[in-house]
């Protein structure tokens, strides 16, 4: 990350758990991540909508890559195969 790089929001969620899941997915892809407002939304869930939910943020220089990773996540590219039932 360049020291002049600003942090940008690449995703928002009203559920802190979901935002952390996305953040860890981005970290696993080698990106720097900050999850903002998770504690506020967890503690005061009714305020979550007013503050725009939990923000998943990355350096601006990594935003395009982060969007691509999140799109792959939502498509199910990282899903594990279903277990076959025992026979």
TrEMBL record:
Coiled coil: none annotated. Residues 7-73 form the DUF2007 domain. Pfam families: DUF2007. InterPro entries: DUF2007, N-reg_PII-like_a/b. SUPFAM superfamilies: GlnB-like. This is DUF2007 domain-containing protein. It comes from Nitrogeniibacter mangrovi.
């Amino acid at each position: 990350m360049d020291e002049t790089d600003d942090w940008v929001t690449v995703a928002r969620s009203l559920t802190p758990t979901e935002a952390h899941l996305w953040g860890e997915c981005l970290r696993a892809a080698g990106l720097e991540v900050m999850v903002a407002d998770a504690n506020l939304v967890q503690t005061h869930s009714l305020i979550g909508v007013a503050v725009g939910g939990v923000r998943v943020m990355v350096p601006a220089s990594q935003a395009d890559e982060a969007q691509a990773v999140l799109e792959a996540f939502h498509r199910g590219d990282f899903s594990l195969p279903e277990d076959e039932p025992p026979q």
